[in-house]
Amino acid sequence: MITDAHGRPLRNVRVSVTDRCNLRCQYCMPEEEYVWLPRDDILSFEEIAYLVDVFADLGADKVRLTGGEPLLRKDLHRLVALLSSNARIRDLALTTNGILLAEQGGALRAAGLHRVTVSLDTLSPVRFRALTRRETHGRVLEGIESVAGWPGLKIDTVVIRGVNDDEIENLVEYGRTVGGEVRFIEYMDVGGATTWSPGQVMSRREMLEVLTRRYGRIEPIIEDTSAPAERFRLSDGTIFGIIASTTSPFCRTCDRSRLTADGVWYLCLYARHGTDLRKALRRGAPREEMKAMILSRWRVRSDRGAEERLAVGERRPLIQVGELKRDPHLEMHTRGG
Ligand code: SAM
């Protein structure tokens, strides 16, 4: 197994297939217009499948398609078919905002997609509009309902104090109705979250307090896994998760890296610099050279971005708007959440 400077394996690759999105979530893409990646730089499906195969040579066996909004990428099911035919990828997942899921879910599943995670921050159409500046709440719910009961279905909610922190119990209830496991994510100060403030972060501890008041005893599920969510069980058996990336980061076990839609590979969500795999690929670098390039970066990987942020005394947004405009690769929507 190939491991980094902290003994973490290279297993999990998140592939952003586009930097475009059909929502403008205030905590991720608060501007209407962005500096978009040049079209010619966007990797083709064949290029992505090839790079994933090179990662698989080095031990990667989990791939998550993300963005931007991945379902905006035309014919995404074609990429899913290419990746699902790679026997070494034993977990092929997708993170989506759900707007186009009712239309595309069937084709994606038929193409071999294993799991889907849908982001849903609120059950209120009015709040959804304020949060995302779009009117598509109904389509998100339709999208989720269209995949209700799929194995591994997850609903991801970013919890923001004063915005949706009063909805966590209702979201747990909603998760039950669609057979999805709800995971509450602490609001993170990543690129794109340009109005983030520490006061808006609802911590894991606070979420558990609210849920205990409603449901009584909550049992932690002890698991030996590198998954970001800690999972909990209510007395009726309902399971939910919390991703405490802000107050209790999990860098110690992080085996994730990220490939942007234009082929830049980042070793940490918070990393300032990435490795341009597209350039090497398009100049025809032999497979062994690509592998050596990836390996040389992973072996010295020592990133603990979220833990370093936690150690910062007065925490403010990670990156200011001006810098994000100069380097769109610093954006969460480019890097893939
Ligand atoms: N468009 C897809 C979606 O909405 O799921 C995939 C990309 S989106 C960047 C992936 C995830 O990142 C979403 O669940 C989103 O809520 C989360 N995210 C974005 N900004 C975040 C922030 N500042 N803190 C925590 N999670 C964030």
Structure description:
42% of the residues are buried. Helix 2 (76-84) packs parallel to helix 3 (101-110). Strands 7-8-9-6-5-4-3-2-1-10-11-12 form a 12-stranded mixed β-sheet. 32% of the residues lie in helices and 17% in strands. By secondary structure, it is an alpha/beta fold. The protein has 12 helices and 12 strands. It binds S-adenosylmethionine. S-adenosylmethionine (SAM) binds at residues 21, 27-28, 66-67, 69, 95-97, 119, 156, 158, 185, 187-188, 190, 192-193, 332-333, 337.
SSE class: alpha/beta
What is the number of helical segments per DSSP (H or I, 4+ residues)?
12
Low-confidence stretches: none
Integer-rounded radius of gyration? 19 Å
Question: Keywords, please?
Answer:
alpha/beta, binds S-adenosylmethionine, 337 residues, 12 helices, twelve-stranded mixed beta sheet
What is the secondary structure topology, with strand pairs?
Layout: E1 12-16, H1 45-57, E2 62-66, H2 76-84, E3 91-96, H3 101-110, E4 115-119, H4 125-132, H5 137-146, E5 154-159, H6 168-178, E6 181-186, H7 204-215, E7 218-221, E8 230-234, E9 239-243, E10 256-259, E11 264-266, E12 275-276, H8 277-282, H9 287-299, H10 305-311, H11 321-326, H12 332-335
Parallel strand pairs: 1-2, 1-10, 2-3, 3-4, 4-5, 5-6, 6-9
Antiparallel strand pairs: 7-8, 8-9, 10-11, 11-12
Helix pairs in contact: 1-2, 2-3, 3-5
The structure holds S-adenosylmethionine.
Concise overview:
With 337 residues, this protein is α/β, with parallel strands linked by helices.
